Structures are given as C-alpha cells and as structure tokens.
Amino acid sequence: MVVETPQDPARILLIDDEPSVLRAFRYCLEDAGHSVATATDAAHAEDLLQRDVFDLCFLDLRLGETSGLELLPSLHQLAPWMKVVIVTAHSSIDSALEAIRAGAADYLVKPCSPKQLQVAAAKQIRARRIEQRLEALENGDSGSGAEEMDSGSPAMKKVLETLRQVADTDVTVLLLGDSGTGKGVAARELHRCSSRAKELFVTVNCPSLSAELLESELFGHKKGAFTGATENKLGRVDQAERGTLFLDEVGDVPLALQPKLLRFVQDREFERVGDPVTRRANVRLIAATNRKLQEMVKQGTFREDLLYRLNVISIWMPPLRERPEDLLHLAQTFLLRYAGSYRRPARVFSAAALDAIRAYAWPGNIRELQNVVERAVILCSGETIDLGMLSLPESAERQARPRIGDPLSLEELERTHIRGVMATASSLDAAAKTLGIDVSTLYRKRMQYDL
Q: How many structural domains comprise the chain?
C-alpha cells in the first residue's frame, strides 16, 4: 500500500500492551512521516512524557489488568496540550461516551486499516495545530504570513540581501538598531525566507517579565514548581519547535537568567522550571536589541560569552532618517492599511504633509511614522491628509538629514557620514576601507560618536 506523506509530521505516542499492535501502528504512522514512540504500560508512558513533547497519543482501552481510562487523567496532567485517542477492540456506545467524558479527543475501534489510523491522526494533529496557531496569535506571533519586505534605500537593500543570504541556514542572527527600526519585521523576513517558514514564528519579549517569570515563559514549568503553577506548561521554546524563536530586546534579559540562556543558545538544551529532565529543542534562534551589548559587557550587566554566541551574524538596521527613499512609500502604505482597517476616507497626503514627512528626522523611526499616520487617518474626514493632521513637533524642532554645506560642525557631518557608510557596508572592515581609515580608528570613532 502506498502511503501519502503528510505535510505536517507530528510526535505521536502509542500505548498498548500488545507488541504486534504497537509494531503495526508504528510502521503505519512512520510511513506517513510521523515520529513515533511506543510504551507497553503506564510507567513507561509517563517516563516518555517526562522527557519529550508529543502532539498526539493513541491509548489502548485495556492495558493488561488496568484500564486506559484510568491512565487518561495522568496523561492530561503530564501533557495537557496532547490529544488522546482511545483505541479498543471491545467497542460499545457506553465505553465511547465514557472515554469522551474523561477527556479523550476521539475513539478508534480495532482492527482498523492504515488509512483509518492515518485519518484519525491527521484529524487530531490538525486540531492541535489550530490550537497552537491560536495561542501564537494571542501572543502576537504568526507562522508564514509575514509580508515580504522591500526597500528603495541602498542601506536597506544591503540589509535585505544579507537577510536572504543567511535565511535558509540555522545560524543565530543578532539584529541591532534603534527602537522602531523594524528589527521585528526583519526577524519575520528571516523566518519567511527560511525552510522553517511553514512552522510557527514565536516571540519572547524579554523586558516584560522578571527573571523567574521569564524563565517559565521561555522554558515552561512543571506543576507545583511555584505558587500558581497548577499544571504542566509548555514554554515558548516548545511552542517554536521546528520553527523560529525570536528573543526581542535580548539585552534586557536579567543577569541571573543569562547562564541558562547561554546554554540554550549554545546547545539547544534546557530544563523546565521545577523539572530536572534535560530537553533538546529544534528551533532557529533570532535575537534583537537596541542596547549597546559591548558596553554592557564592560559594565558587567551582560555576559561576554552569551554575546559571542548570539553574535554569529549581526545585522544593523539603519534608522529611518538614513532611509529617505523609503519614507513616502512607507507613509502611503500605512495610510492605505489604516484607511482600510478603520474604514476611513483618507487616500492621499497633501503636498505640505509630504514635505513635512520628508523634512522630519523621525527619532522614533518606523514605529513613530506608523503611529503618526494611523492617528491622521482616524482624524481625517476627507480623502486628503493635510499637514495639521500629522501632529508633528514644531517645525523648529524638525531637522532634515545633514548635508554638505548645511550650517553644521565638521564633527556632526563626520558622525552622519560614518553612520551612513556603516549602514551600507557589508562589515566593519569594508566600512573602514571606504572611509580610508583602519578598523581601530573606526572603532574609536564609533565610541566617540556613540554609534
């Protein structure tokens, strides 16, 4: 029989006291592309669940002298996310109803054909993936739905070229740049262009939690590990399995948690809070920060070895003021997006509004532009957004990008020029060569100008 391989392989646990049944089920599910583990009794099953994460379990109703229904509560406690299908050769309406009431997701009668087994597995895996997607959406994550990035800016074209060169590897990438420059969007672009694009893109917002809560959020916890831990919980690492894990603002990870994060970054190994079992993760890791990590290392607030492990490939995201070619395109994109979502009539900017957008320095970068346009769309009652609707700071506080001949000091011009060259250069060596200085001089200039 030719078995069609599914697009969504899963981890499946088989629990049955008949070795021949385990073999037949295992071969059938493995031929369909799934990863399968088997257990002949409750103790073996519980041991496997302590060490691995399963999406689905096929549980025999009669395990020797015990009932599979007696094991069901323990399975739900160890892995509340796992779907359980009861399998039995002694079917009856009463036993089926009892299984469903006890929390089973479905009921399968032996003997069953390979096709029936595959269909039952596919149905539950589909349900599990929908739950994972909903969990991800609740946390602001997504799968492969990120929009493709584009840019007319030489600085951003260089960034996009590098992103797409490294996307289809599993190398760790560190995204650097000011707040609002699009580091999160770049991380999603890496995921979109990778072989993991069909899996989840999961974000951990590092500054939002204490060290203890961040560890639980990242790695998960065992029931009873701390007050309020009422059940076993998967962490974001488990949720990102086979996909991409994005550590946003990794510079804010508390020092106490950094050794465990280092181990995970280096070996992809971790333990859930309150659980001594070591687990391995198959995830792509991307990190981002607006912090100067080298300075934090000198101050003793960030581990040097962790920086080295994160900084395999680093990509600097240029600020919006150094991407003038993208300004109007981004503004128009945001205008149309919010006009559609809020059902507002705004469609274009006035000439004065466009001039103001070009002239303003956008210290808050893309995020500031997005917020300004969103507010203007909401307030606009006609098709044209005028200057007054943008609510930008007073014109005296606006400043266009410095140019040669502007009334600026040489120091200000040098700072801007060095930043611009670094934005388009492939490396610090290349930037130093373009500037006509050696790398050590460029390093001193970066320290001097806080670049």
A: 4
What is the CB-side half-sphere exposure of residue 363 using CA atoms within 13 A?
5
> Of 216, 241, 211, which Cα lies nearest the Cα of 227?
216
Report the distance separating Cα 115 and Cα 117, nearest Å: 5
Per-residue model confidence (pLDDT) at position 153: 87
CA 14 from centre of chain: 31
Q: Is 229 exposed, middle or buried (0-12, 13-18, 19+ CB in 10 A)?
A: middle
CATH of the domain at 162: 3.40.50.300
Q: Are residues 164 and 310 in the same domain?
A: yes
Q: Where in the sequence is the domain holding 333, given as residue range(s)? A: 320-397
Cβ proximity of 319 and 177 under 8 Å: yes
The pLDDT of residue 268 is above 90: yes
pLDDT in tens, 27-79: 999 988 898 999 988 888 888 888 888 999 999 888 877 778 888 888 888 88
Nearest to 234 by CA among 249, 216, 248: 216
Does residue 296 sit within a domain?
yes
Task: Flag whether 160 is in a domain.
Answer: yes
User: Is residue 402 one of the residues assigned to a domain?
Assistant: no
Q: Please list, in sequence order, all residues whose beta carbon lies within 8 angstroms of the beta carbon of residue 444, skipping any fewer than 6 positions away.
A: none
User: What's the CATH number where 387 sits?
Assistant: 1.10.8.60
Please provide the DSSP assignment of 384-445 as one string. Answer: EE-HHHH-PPPGGG--PPP-TTSS--HHHHHHHHHHHHHHH-SSHHHHHHHHTS-HHHHHHH
CA angle in degrees (0–180, nearest 5) for 191-283-76:
120
Pairing of strands 201-205, 244-248: parallel
Element (H, E) at 219: helix 211-219
For residue 42, what is the enclosing H or E element?
A: helix 42-51
For the four alpha carbons of 316, 321, 327 and 331, in that order, the dihedral sign comes to positive
Backbone angles phi, psi at 402, to 5 degrees: -60, 140
Structure tokens at 250: 């990794």
Q: Tell me, yes or no, whether 2 lies in a domain.
A: no
Residue spans of alpha helices (H) in 282-426: 293-299, 304-310, 324-342, 351-359, 365-379, 387-390, 410-424
Give residue 381's region: left, alpha or beta (phi > 0; psi -120 to 50).
alpha
pTM score over 0.70: no
Report the alpha-carbon angle 164-364-336, nearest 5: 70
